Amino acid sequence: MRGKTLYEVLEVAQTASHESIDSAYRNLSKRLRARADRDPAGAALMATALEEAYRTLSSDDLRRRYDARIAPRPIITTMPVVDDRPWVVRNWLLLLVLAAAASSAYGYYRHVQKEKAAIAIALREKEELLAKKKAEQEERERLQAEAQEARRQQIEAARIQVRTDQTRREADAHARRQEQQRARFQQDAAHQQRMEDMAKQREEMQARARLEQEKRKLEQLERENYGYRRY
Fold it and tell me: pTM of whole model > 0.70?
């Protein structure tokens, strides 16, 4: 912004009204906000110059002083008068104005440098804050992923345990059924054996009864034969 007047910074004429200055300041501020994304350092420098121009030109007193400082000096058309005084004495006012201008320019330069340093610090702090937030977000996402994985493993372990318990219960039920079948088979076999033993006993009893009957018949026949022989 060096070499430009405050009016040129605001892009208005030196005779611009307060309304024109306000309107120009608002329009340029909007343009600076759009520029800040692609050129933050340049936008910050422009914003500093814009604020200084608006602060000076929106105040009647500061504007009069500034207009007086930048007003062109009148051209002297009279014949120069020879002045034998030393150059420093003859041009003390010019030196004073130059010193004031240099001091003002240096102060403005220092102000701009401070603004740039402050903007750089703010940008660095913002970047550090964004990096910190990103790291915190990544850490939260990592913890959430670990928690989800732990829950998934717990659910899978619970499912495996349920399947294991169900398989064990089914195996126990199958073993009980087999044991019951073996018990029924043994009971049926024992019952069949008892029935066979009872059948054998009945057959033996019937055989003994027939044998006794045959023996009695034989004895009777022998007695009858013996009686016949006596006679």
Answer: no
The residue type at 167: T
**In this structure, is residue 204 part of a structural domain?**
no
Query: Is residue 113 included in any domain, yes or no?
Result: yes
Return d(Cα 217, Cα 221) in angstroms, integer: 6
- Please determine, for residue 191, whether its predicted confidence score (pLDDT) is greater than 80: yes
The residue ranking higher by pLDDT, 188 or 192, is 192
Predicted local distance difference test score (pLDDT) of residue 81: 53
Within-domain flag for 125: yes
| Domain ranges, residue 114 | 6-72+95-138
For residue 225, count other CB atoms closer than 10 A to its CB.
9
Kindly indicate the confidence band of residue 52, based on its pLDDT and cuts at 50, 70 and 90. very high
Q: How many domains does the chain have?
A: 1
Report yes or no: 6 and 52 within 8 Å, Cβ to Cβ. Answer: yes
Q: At 105, which amino acid appears?
A: A
C-alpha distances in Å from residue 105, one per residue of 29, 97, 98, 112, 117: 24, 12, 10, 10, 18
- CATH code of residue 21: 1.10.287.110
Distance CA 81, CA 83 (A): 6
